[in-house]
Every structure is written in C-alpha cells, then in structure tokens.
Design brief:
415 residues, alpha+beta, 6-stranded mixed sheet
C-alpha cells in the first residue's frame, strides 16, 4: 500500500513512553572483586570533603573520621583580638604597634616640673630678681626642691639619662641656693656695754595692736619697730607706754602707711626714707654710743609694682651704705634672703641678719593667716658688726598675718 504523502512529509517523533513500562535499571556499582570498567584518564575532580555527621560519602562509603585541623597561629595578647584575616598564614602583625617610647608622657611631666625650679634658681645664681613672676617665685625657693626632686624621680622612671642628669643639676643648684646667705663681717670683740632687746612687728592695719601691747608688756623690749600702725594704733602705743618707751619717731597715716618706732633711749635726728609706706628713723643714744635705728617697710613685689619694690629697697640700701657707726634696721622688708635687692642691703651696709647669726634664717614669718602655712621670712632685724646676737625668737600675734621678731643683742664698746 502506498504511503500517505502528508504523513511522509511530517517529522518523525519519538514514541511517548508507556506509563506501565518499567524504567531501565541504573548502572549497578560493581561488586567487590569484580573488574572495574576502564576509564579514560583525565583531570581529577576535587573530592568534596563532607562535614562530619551529615551522612555517607557520595560514593556510599561510611563517613571518614575528620582529619585534625591545621594549627593556626594564636595572636599575641597585645595583638588585635580579631586575629589574622582568613587565609593569612605566618605571624600576625598588630596594625597598632605600641609606642617605641612608652615613658614619653612621664618624661614630659618631669620636664614640666623642672621648668620653674630651673628658671628661679638661675635668677638666684645670676643675682637678679628679674621680672614678674620671678620676684614672687623667689619667695618659694627652698620649697622648689620638691618639684625638682619629683622631676628627677620621674626622669629615672622614664629612663631618660639626659633628662635625669639635667634634673640632678637643677636639684643640686636649687638646694645650694637655699643655703643661708651671709656676708663677710667683722664681729665686734669689745666688751658688751648694753643689752638691747629689739621687737619688730607688722600689726596689719592696726588690727593686732592689743596683742602687741600685751607682748611688749611681757617681753619688755627697748626698741619697738611697728609697721602698718594706723593713727589709732600709734596713739594707743604712745599713750600706753609713755613711761617705758617715752621716745618715738612716727609717720602718722591711715592703713598700712602708718608706722611708729618706740624707744626706751633718747632719740634725735629724726629722718624718714621716702616710700609709699612710712619708714621713720632716728639716732638713739645707748650707753653713750650713737646708734642709728631705722624702720623698714617697702612695698611688696606685687605684679605691676616690682619696680616700686626695687626702688624702695634701693633707698634702704643707700641708707645702709652711708652708715658710720652702730646700726639697727628692722621691720617688714617684704623680701627674703633669696631676693637680690635684699642681699644688696647686707652687702653695702656690711650688715647681718640676726636670725642667720643663730641659724634661724629660714624661720617663716609670713603668712600666718589663711589656708597656706608660713613659707617665707620677710621680717628681719639687721645688725652691724658692733652688735653680737644672743638669741632670736618669732612670736605669734593675734590679728595679723605676720610673726613678730624678737632679738636679744649686745652692744659692744670700742676695741
């Protein structure tokens, strides 16, 4: 039978699978001992590594025991806790390495502690008071050994040899500069002709007048130098001691400008050193000898008034340089032995500080009131070489920020 042309032109199609026909069996894995079929060699595919506990291997075998993991470098304690990046082997480098100079902050602090002692000690050694704040800081000179010592300790901790050597030099210079200052003087060797007790007190605007009166009655000085004695203070003292201390030289003024010098010995040749605050003086006749007595009370070295302070101390220096006989200068100098302007008075007048003579030149007299304890001696009794010093005491007076200075002196005769 002839075929249909339409059927002959249609493309051939695979017969539809019979749903009842069983599928062909899959290739069986050859049993043990059977020859394995030959395979064409080729590139080996990577063998998958199964995670333990997730069924058999793809080839049907039992899961193999997991191999031990390769050792991973443990970062050092100081390294980043995040550890090395994945895939990185070898030692881990800390992206934030420690400073090569771990003592740098300590060394910096040590240097800062040495600045002020070095500056102030340099001015002391150069014999100059400099400008503000040097005159004010010179009052703290002995105490500057504390920051200098701390600076040395911190420099040693920081292991900075150069800085430690600098600290040693600064500390030694500060300590040496704090030794008591004196001048080469000739101490009178004649026989004592009179015992002279001198009292110098700053009564702070007259507030300590009552305390001073009680002290004078108890100590019975022959010469009393009173600073910051206002008009009421002056009247009270000259009235109460009209019999014991009948002679006086005074500057009558209010507040700190008033001063009075009381004497048990006759006074003549009243003179006054020009200054902002009163500085009276006179000549006293003591045991037949003429003794020049002078009260000192220059301006304090406040910021903006350092030039005035230096000028008024210079006038006291000029007075001391002109002396020709026994001299006593006492009062509130507003300067310590660490100030060049005060030392010049001792040099030019060939005077000594009575407190130094009895090894008490570092006994602080100011400030007594307030939260800060006394740290500097600015109240002095200066004596010429016609006097020998027997004793010096420092007395507290209620109502003032100064301690009074009480000196027992012996006036000696001609050699």
């Amino acid at each position: 039978m002839d075929s249909d042309p339409a059927l002959a032109a249609a493309p051939k199609q695979d017969p539809a699978p019979d749903p009842q026909q069983a599928p062909e069996p899959a290739a069986q894995k050859p049993k043990s001992g059977a020859p394995k079929p030959q395979q064409t060699p080729g590139p080996a595919a990577p063998k998958p590594v199964p995670a333990p506990g997730f069924g058999p291997d793809p080839d049907g075998s039992a899961p193999a025991a997991p191999e031990p993991a390769a050792s991973t470098p443990v970062p050092a304690p100081e390294s980043d806790p995040a550890g090395p990046a994945p895939g990185v082997t070898g030692p881990f480098l800390d992206p934030h390495p420690p400073s090569r100079r771990p003592g740098r902050p300590v060394a910096l602090l040590a240097g800062l502690l040495l600045v002020v002692p070095a500056l102030v000690t340099a001015c002391r050694l150069l014999d100059t008071d400099g400008i503000t704040p040097v005159p004010q800081l010179l009052s703290f000179l002995p105490w500057l050994t504390v920051p200098a010592g701390l600076g040395l300790l911190l420099a040693a901790v920081a292991r900075r040899r150069g800085l430690a050597l600098t600290a040693v030099v600064v500390l030694a210079a500060t300590a040496w500069s704090s030794l008591p200052y004196t001048t080469w003087t000739t101490i009178g060797h004649g026989l004592p002709v009179a015992r002279v007790r001198v009292l110098a007190a700053n009564v702070e605007f007259g507030q300590a007048t009552d305390a001073l009166i009680a002290t004078i009655r108890r100590e019975r000085p022959a010469l009393v130098y009173v600073s910051e004695c206002d008009r009421a203070c002056g009247r009270a003292l000259t009235t109460v001691f009209a019999a014991e201390l009948p002679h006086y030289a005074s500057v009558e003024a209010d507040g700190s400008a008033g001063s009075v010098l009381l004497s048990a010995h006759p006074l003549r040749d009243w003179r006054m050193i020009p200054a902002t605050m009163g500085m009276p003086g006179a000549t006293a006749e003591i045991a037949g000898r003429s003794v020049r007595v002078q009260l000192a009370h220059p301006m304090p070295p406040l910021p903006g008034q350092v030039d005035v302070w230096k000028r008024e101390l210079g006038r006291i220096e000029d007075f001391a340089a002109l002396r020709t006989g026994p001299t006593l200068i006492a009062g509130d100098f507003n300067a310590s032995q660490d100030h060049a302007a005060f030392r010049s008075i001792l040099k030019e007048g060939r005077l000594r500080d009575a407190a130094w003579a009895v090894r008490r030149s570092r006994a602080a007299t100011w400030p007594v009131e307030g939260p800060v304890p006394p740290y500097v001696q600015i109240d002095h009794v200066l004596v010429s070489d016609e006097f020998s010093v027997d004793d010096v005491r420092f007395l507290d007076l209620d109502g003032t920020d100064h301690r009074a200075v009480l000196a027992d002196l012996d006036l000696r005769g001609d050699r």
